[in-house]
Amino acid sequence: MIFGQPSDFAIEAYHEPSGPEWGGFGRMCVHIHGAQIGDIRDNHCSLFHPTDRFRELCGTIESLWDESFVGKSNAEIFSILERPLYRDYGQSLEQMRADWERLGQYVFLTNTGEQFDGTNTFIVCRPGGVVTIICRFRDDTLASGSCRVESFRAVAEAYVQWFEEQVRTTAPPFFPVNPFNPDEYVPDSRNA
Fold first, then answer.
1. pLDDT band at residue 180 using 50, 70 and 90 as cut-offs
2. Residue 136 included in any domain
3. Which of 86, 106, 122, 150 sits in a 20 to 30 Å window from 136, CA-based?
């Protein structure tokens, strides 16, 4: 299924469980202005972590801006984020923690699943509501694309809702309650 428009912003995902224990597994990629992030051909990847990231971003996307980005190009913003998070190996443990505390929120789909291996992605929301995704691929090519925050949120919310329904209908033996509602009560059958 494709949620959104690849020429603007889209999430392409196919739920392909090979049994109830594999509910929530399949293929996924993201399209932003013609750039594709993720390998849609990579089968049987967990979709949980990237879905969690989209769910989180629906509520926080407008907060993803830092004054250090003002007047900077996408490549410069990428460098501002990548260097302290992934390339500055001489930092102290305290400095690494401080950098992750301040900059970790801009990490987009890096390390969220096998389909995104070999890519390093960041996401920012420029003042005025323009979401920009910046990605470096395995071959060191840098790509970026932008869309309106309303488009990003609508696509992400539609995808998350679809994914949650897919998991609820295919994996009930392994998720006896709604896995997306941690407050739901699980009865203890041993004391019945």
1. low
2. yes
3. 150
Radius of gyration of the chain (CA): 18
Within its chain, how far is the Cα of 55 from the centroid? 8
Number of H helices and number of E strands within the chain? 4, 8
Q: Is 70 exposed, middle or buried (0-12, 13-18, 19+ CB in 10 A)?
A: exposed
- 114 lies in some domain: yes
Query: What gap in Å lies between CA 25 and CA 72, rounded to an integer?
Result: 38
- Entry pTM: 0.84
104 belongs to a structural domain:
yes
From CA 13, how far away is CA 2, in angstroms rounded? 7
- Which residues are within 8 A (CB) of 54 and not within 5 positions of it... i.e. 6 or more apart? 11, 156, 159, 160
Supply the range of the domain harboring residue 67: 2-176
Cα gap 106→109, rounded to integer Å: 10
Q: How many angstroms separate the Cα of 116 from the Cα of each of 25, 43, 110, 125?
A: 14, 12, 6, 21
Task: Report how many domains make up the chain.
Answer: 1
> Range with the lowest mean pLDDT among 4-8, 42-46, 59-63, 174-178?
174-178
Q: Is 190 a member of any domain?
A: no
- d(CA 125, CA 77) in angstroms, rounded, equals 12
